[in-house]
Amino acid sequence: PSRHIHSQHRTTSFGFKTIPEESKESLVKHVFDSVASSYDLMNDASSLGVHRLWKDAFVSTLKPGRKGPLRCIDVAGGTGDIALRILDHARESYADRETTVDVLDINAHMLKEGFTRFKKTMYHNTPQVSFHEANAQDMPHSLFKDDSYDLYTIAFGIRNCTSIPAVLKEAHRVLKPGATFACLEFSKVNNPLFSTLYDQYSFSIIPLMGTILAGDRESYQYLVESIRKFPSQPVFAQMIREAGFATGGDRDGGAWTDLWGGIACIHTAVKL
Ligand code: SAM
Fold it and tell me: What class of enzyme is it (predicted)?
């Protein structure tokens, strides 16, 4: 399968190969088909476990506009990392066993990993969690109704979508007025020295780990590259506003919160 990816690449200034936008959707599907079974292991290895801290911070800082129980949707939810944290947080902090999370992902393999994982939890076979194969850019209106969710989350997913504005438009559609949009994504590192070190690490170590742990260098190369192409914090915040959301002030600590100097970033906004 990795040969298929290879044939669609062209070379960037880093010497790695870039994927043309037009084939991005099928390629992203292929990448996540390929990495699904090793995804959780690779996440831990490539971030040295830090993605867990970021996800914990993401969920614990969410401030939905109203008290629970909440109707949540976790888009590009993959193996269910965020959904599980939302449900645990509701239960542990508010003794809430009625909050629900609909996990949506375009990739059936990733969802299957999530479903299997939830089997070992108390949420399995309860109305609290459900898994749906769908495109974040065009969610079926009959299932994902207008003005129906209290909280929309998307973690490390929006950069893999072909059209960010289409995702934001759908997020806006399904949220209730006054409800919260929250996105956790890799972002732009501000400090130039740190940025150089981070580039060295991610462009050499992560594809190498992909080769060793998952036998798939190119998919991990793609994932690193997609991080570099994602808009900077202020540009993304502006896109969120253009979709009809209100954000805090246009800075770190306002519209967004940088994690680890901007390696990752949380954007939150409220549907107007
Ligand atoms: N949110 C999970 C997490 O934080 O561990 C998974 C993140 S994983 C890096 C990105 C996910 O985005 C993959 O599961 C992929 O299938 C999904 N994805 C990519 N494009 C999508 C789209 N257009 N609609 C829905 N999901 C998409």
Answer: transferase
* Structural domain contains residue 201: yes
Q: Is the ipTM of this complex over 0.90?
A: yes
Q: What is the pLDDT of residue 212?
A: 83
On whether 88 is known to bind a ligand per the annotation, the reply is no
Give Cα separations from 192 to 15, 86, 196, 197, 205 (angstroms). Answer: 21, 35, 6, 9, 19
Q: What is the reported pTM?
A: 0.88
Domain assignment present for 103: yes
Q: Using the CB atoms, write b or e for 21-54: b if 16+ within 10 Å.
A: eebbbebbbbbbebbbebbbebbebbbeeebeeb
Ligand 1 centroid distance, CA of 193 (Å):
30
Residue 133 and residue 157 in one domain: yes
Residue 90 labeled ligand binder = no
- 166-193 pLDDT tens trace: 999 999 999 999 999 999 999 999 888 8
Burial class (CB in 10 A: 0-12, 13-18, 19+), 19: buried
Residue with tokens 């831990």: 44
Q: For the chain, give percent helix, strand, coil, nearest 5.
A: 50, 20, 30
Q: Is 150 found in the same domain as 247? A: yes
Give 89: exposed, middle or buried? Use CB within 10 Å, 0-12, 13-18, 19+. middle
- What's the whole-number average pLDDT of the chain? 87
**CA of 156 relative to ligand 1 center, distance in Å:** 7
Sequence letter at residue 155 = A
